[in-house]
Amino acid sequence: MSLFNTQLGRSLLAFVVGCVACGEPDAPPAKLCVPGETRLCNGPGGCEGAQACSLDGQALSACDCGTNPPAGAAAAVDECTGQDPACAVPNLLAAPCQADVDCGGAGLVCWSADAVGLLGFEGGPARGYCTMACTTPDDCFRVDPGAGCNAVDGMEQGMCLRGCFSKDPEPLERKCLDRTDLACWSTAVLGIQPFSISSRQQGFCQPACGSDADCPGRYCDLVSGTCRDEPSQGAPIGAACGVDGDCAGGACLRPIGGASYCSALCAFGALGCGFPEGAANREAACAAPLLSEGGAREGLGDVGSCFELCDQAGDCTLPDWECAVGSGLIGGRSVCQFVGQQ
Question: pLDDT for 3-47, tens place per residue?
């Protein structure tokens, strides 16, 4: 993009298949229903109910038959497949959880914060993540029409990831369920499409722990965004680097015209970057969305990048960076900024 040359590739996401909105980069996402529309539907066990279309036209709510669905409803849900509105189930994909029971059934299981080796992934998401096994996006669509299916190399099955859209969310949208420990990885960040200046782009909600405080008893791995048993190794945010592996945050970024520096990927809108939200000694913060171009940028809830913080000239680690005194990001602290960006 306009500010950075990047080489991205979180170990969490080996591949994503299925893309509702892929196509021309500036074309608006195809709508699955009329925003705000309410329609009749058949819910679990064949009950009669109603469901509403989301504000972005990309999903139908669960079929609501009231508080007493007929007997056998759970069995009927298990038989549902594909995007048939009559088979709608509550979209708890990516909801926080501690155990499978927190995910409401319908095939969803809890990818818990203390998980080790679930479907090939080493760590677990902060506060847990309701998901289900998949081999193609069709396996996920009955829960979330915008979902993706991902897997690590060598695994026959992956897990479903909740769908999202880049740039600032609309009111009541609940992008990635408003979780600050998840980030929306757009098709632009994933390298599937070029960055769109005018359109919101489809994405997938991935774990984005901000600090060890998000992972009681474990460590927040900023590289994968998950909680793990071993702390990350490498240089801190703001240090010089040559490759991603030099950095504890797993991201060696290079501003156009400048030298590479250590950063980390984060959920823009949270502070993160290895420090708890209320940290008194914060030295880095998620200060900007990762992607921007032509005056447009991704927004709240999207993937951001971590910057070193400072108080005065000379505080920044690299000589070609300066303290943007007065930027007032966190409690009066300022952001280290590459001189060539101005």
Answer: 333 334 443 344 444 444 444 444 445 455 655 555 555 555 556
For the four alpha carbons of 175, 176, 180 and 183, in that order, the dihedral sign comes to: negative
CA distance 247 to 238: 9
Contact between residue 266 and residue 302 where contact means Cβ atoms under 8 Å apart: no
Rounded average pLDDT over 77-92: 53
- The pLDDT value recorded for residue 330 is 64
314 Cβ contact list (under 8 Å, min separation 6): 323
Q: What is the DSSP letter of 129?
A: E
Burial track 179-209 (b if 16+ CB lie within 10 A, e otherwise): bbbbbbbbbbbbebbebbeebbbbbbbbbbb
Q: Please state, in angstroms and rounded to a whole number, the distance separating the CA atoms of residues 327 and 342.
A: 13
Can you tell me the distance from the alpha carbon of 122 to that of 224, in angstroms, rounded to the nearest whole number? 9
The DSSP-derived string for 64-94 is: B--S-PPTTHHHHHHT--TT-GGG-----TT
Q: What is the tens place of the pLDDT at every residue in 200-242?
A: 999 999 999 999 999 999 999 999 999 999 999 999 999 999 9
* Closest to 32 in 3D by CA, of 81, 79, 85: 85
How many Cα neighbours within 13 Å face the side chain of 235?
Answer: 21
